Amino acid sequence: MRGTVIIGGGQAGFQTAVSLRAEGYSEPIAIVGEEAHLPYQRPPLSKGMLTGKQQERHAVLRPADFYVAQRIDLITGTRVESLDPASCSVSLAGGQRLEYDSLVLATGARNRLLPGAERALYLRTLGEAAEARARIAVAASIAVIGGGFIGLEVAAAARTLGKPVTVIEAAPRLMARVLAPVVSEYFRQRHEEHGVRILLNASVERIEKDEVVLVDGTRVPAELLIVGIGVAPNVELASSAGLDVANGICVDEHLRTVDPRIFAIGDCAEYENVYAGVRLRLESVQNAVDQAVSVAQAIVGRGTAYDSVPWFWSDQFDIRMQMAGIGTGFDQVVTRGDLESRKFSVFYYRGGELKAIDSLNCPAEHLLARKIIAARASISPEQAADESFDLRTAIS
Q1: DSSP output for 165-230
Q2: Which of 6, 294, 370, 375 is the most buried (most CB within 10 A)?
Q3: Taking the complete model, does pTM exceed 0.70, yes or no?
Q4: Is the CB of residue 358 less than 8 Å from the CB of residue 321?
């Protein structure tokens, strides 16, 4: 078999196959995924699935007959053992060998594990989400280690179900890696309003049967322990094949590795982000989908440099936060709107240049924010803070 082989059955791998067919690509396509499930999306796992509003079927991207109709060979529950760029082939765990003209590495990432927390539950896969939902339903106390997006979404879901929840975060504020202090504090207050106990600057000393013991001696009830302390990219296959890796599989502006026949996309890929001005790796649905579309275009011979505006979202209680751009390294933050109204946006600046906008319960402003960031529009901090200033004039 030649054509295109896609390693990874997640959002990025799925979208690559769909986009290739949409581009008129008629050669064979194979998706190889380690999980036995049909390709599915991850956002519902830490949101609707935990509260019971969504079931496993709602996460599945397409039914099985879709792949048959699109002539996409879906190989699930199978691990890729090795990659040989010299022969343009990959070897699967069952002994099968696939040859390719183009190879797309969409290998994703895996949870970082907490040492000494063998009884902890993590949330990355459909199976883990189903287990978490079942265990949350019967747990008398829940501790979440990690105050990032996943940890807080899990905490919000569990608290919505009426469960006692404590969030343990080692940093001095929530989601500190990506959010300004004003937004971190806003989320802390909202979680505490809903009854979530938030412990900051909290270091774990040990995990006991029904408790988490902190360095300062605090004992946190934890019949159910859920850990969300980030992920590590799956780069081992690429590394063993001699491809360059750093904080992900290294790719150029067209998402190609050092081997021009091999691409890497999604959570596993490190690329030069034109909005941040640095090489980075993004973990988002938007990035996975847009990179997949870009690679499909490159494979059919009409690709351009990848430059999509990064955007993200998080749902926690009655808050929908939508983020556009990359605010890392900001040196000034401006708030537009009233925090008490629970509808506002936060503008991130670095060296006087607008880099990112977070919108909370302001979907229309978020859509505008994506256009503003894409246009690299010039909006002064004073204009951003002035609600009478029409942001649309910056891109008109």
Answers
A1: EEEE-SSSSTTTTTS-HHHHHHHHHHHHHTT-EEE-S--EEEE-SSEEEETTS-EEE-SEEEE---
A2: 6
A3: yes
A4: yes
